Description:
Elements: E1 13-17, H1 19-22, H2 26-36, E2 41-47, H3 60-65, H4 75-84, E3 88-94, H5 99-104, H6 132-148, E4 152-156, H7 174-177, H8 180-197, E5 202-207, H9 214-220, H10 224-227, E6 233-237, H11 257-278, E7 284-285, E8 288-290, H12 305-317, E9 323-326
Helix pairs in contact: 6-8, 11-12
Amino acid sequence: TVTEPFAEKVRVKGIYVTGAMAGTSNMDNLIDLVDRTELNTMVIDVKNDEGRVVYDMDSAFVREIGAVKEYVSDMPGLIRKCKEHGIYLIARIVAFKDPFLAENRQDLALTDKNGNIFRDKSGLAWVNPYKREVWDYLLEIARQAASVGFDEIQFDYIRFSTDAGMSKVDFGEDALEQDKEDVITEFTIYAAQELHDMGVPLSADVYGVIIDSKLDASIVGQNYYEMAKHLDYISPMVYPSHYGPGNFGIENPDKQPYDTIRHALKDSIELLAESRQEHKKQAVVRPWLQDFTASYLKDYMNYGDQEVRQQIQAVYDSGYDEWILWDAGVSYHYGGLLT
């Protein structure tokens, strides 16, 4: 039996930090940013989008395939330093988008019936969520991250690719009995059990659009309602830029950050209210917010202090009190944060 796990719940107000950034002296500036603002949390890459583990992890499987790319030379030291500043640390582990594992263990990759590797539009291979060995690899990395001192594990890309070519993928025998949503939910249950046995909380990142689109949920394999029953935290990526023109009746969601977040979270509240009656335990909703300018859109707006603050306010006005800011470039608008 485990003592009451994670008794001291932190109301997370966080930022995302890449492994590459975590290993540089810039980390001191980010720690200073947390010290000077309402921030209290960092989500740090442990296994990144390339499938590389960012520090030398004491794991036979990780070493065997050579997954380590040592961005952070002293992870225990970095964790100690963050802890001295009272920072809550979340290990981000990119799950099924893992080009490194897929290329090095092609038996675990998504392939067609002829054994040709599926590649997404960026040319990257993914691993097969139906393979238990992939699950065990992910949990091995999660356990190692927890044992080195991370407070929480967060899986990202805990889903299937949505790119063209997925229709030709042969997922194997198990896919005949389980659809995509079933297998992602089952992985969530498996991961939660393993981590809860260690007294470590589990969170997962999901598309914001799955909250109110059954079609999108079935394509990516994320069932918000079911996943929320087993996770401790669920983080919908409700970036305004992710919603197309006309979503929520808003002409251009990217240009109305406050309204877009309010609408997305209202749908979250309504969907999970049904589940709360049926299930006592339910994930805390902790949305990802946009601290980047979506210049790839035809019609976009520059995001700065004001747009960040509007989104945070929308979270609070929705009755939620946790959030994390995303910027792949790790350059945050702290003028939008309270001191």
